[in-house]
Every structure is written in C-alpha cells, then in structure tokens.
C-alpha cells in the first residue's frame, strides 16, 4: 500500500517527527535549499516507511504521509505534489494535493528556476516565471 488516506493524522505526524529527528536506522533530516529532506532512503526519492509500532507490513509513501499529517487525503483524481520540486522534502507547506495535469505542468518551472533580470536603470532583481496557484517554490 502506498496511499496514506487510511492512516490517522496523528500517526502521520508521528512519522513526520521521526523523519525530522531520526530514529533507529533512520538518520535525522537535513536542510537544503529551503527544504527539509528526509534520509530514509537516499537512493529512492519516493521512499516508503512503516507506521511506528505497527505490526503491519504496510508501507506508505513519505510524501503521502506528510500530506496526511496536514489532515488531507487524496482521491482518484489527485496526486501529491511538491511545490519545491524536491521529492525528499518533508515540509508540509511544500506538499499539496492537485490534479495530475497541474502537477505535470510544474516541471518547466523547475527547469527554468528563478531568473535574474537587470533593467535599463541598472537595478538587478530576481523574478519567478511560475504562473501556478499556489506558485512553485523556486530556490
């Protein structure tokens, strides 16, 4: 199982706390580029984990657990999306539920990133080409 809709919000929050602080064989998360990244699996971006203290063999995608920790669930018409484009980020504000079409449409924002522009007056500023609502989080 990968969808965490049947997981309680409290259990999902406990998983998130374990990922942040570390537990057993899971080292603590670390900050990178405005994100907090889990270390559950460095090889698998969309890693899974079991509920702490559960005898069940069920594992859940970490990004689904983060969404569930906010009290949200997915449905057949939605996906879990990282606004920051980082699949190992566990900041709840960076993770939302949206349609597969909108989720896929965010890919060019990551490729372009932030743009540095200098106007005729000599002032340089950074702009985001993202037109999404909510906007992509670009570093």
What does this structure look like?
With 139 residues, the chain is α+β, with helices and mostly antiparallel strands. The chain has one domain. 24% of the residues lie in helices and 19% in strands. The chain is built from 4 helices and 8 strands, in the order H-E-E-E-E-H-E-E-H-H-E-E. The chain has helices at 9-21, 62-69, 100-105, 107-112, and strands at 30-32, 35-37, 48-49, 60-61, 79-82, 95-98, 115-118, 124-127. The strands form 4 sheets. A two-stranded antiparallel ribbon has the order 1-2. Strands 3-4 form a two-stranded antiparallel ribbon. A two-stranded antiparallel ribbon has the order 5-6. A hairpin with a 2-residue loop joins strand 1 (30-32) and strand 2. Helix 1 (9-21) packs across helix 2. The longest helix has 13 residues, at 9-21. The relative contact order is 0.16. The mean pLDDT is 88.
List descriptors.
single chain, 4 helices, 139 residues, two-stranded antiparallel ribbon, alpha+beta, 8 strands
SS-based class: alpha+beta
Rg over CA atoms: 17 Å
The residue ranges in which pLDDT falls below 50 over 5 or more consecutive positions are none
Mean pLDDT across all amino acids: 88
Q: Helical amount among residues, as a percent range?
A: 10-25%
**Main sheet, how many strands, which sense, barrel?**
2 strands, antiparallel
Strand proportion, as a percent range, falls in 15-25%
Helix segment count?
4
């Amino acid at each position: 199982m990968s969808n965490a809709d049947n997981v309680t919000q409290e259990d999902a929050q406990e998983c998130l706390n374990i990922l942040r602080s570390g537990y057993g064989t899971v080292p603590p998360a670390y900050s990178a580029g405005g994100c907090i990244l889990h270390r559950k699996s460095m090889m698998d971006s969309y890693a899974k984990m079991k509920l702490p203290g559960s005898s069940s063999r069920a594992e859940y995608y970490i990004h689904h657990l983060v969404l569930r920790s906010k009290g949200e669930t997915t449905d057949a018409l939605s996906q879990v999306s990282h606004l920051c484009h980082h699949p190992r980020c566990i900041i709840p504000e960076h993770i939302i539920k949206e349609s597969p079409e909108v989720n896929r449409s965010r890919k060019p924002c990551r490729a372009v990133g932030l743009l540095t522009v200098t106007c005729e007056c000599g002032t340089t500023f950074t702009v985001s080409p993202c037109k999404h609502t909510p906007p992509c989080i670009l570093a």
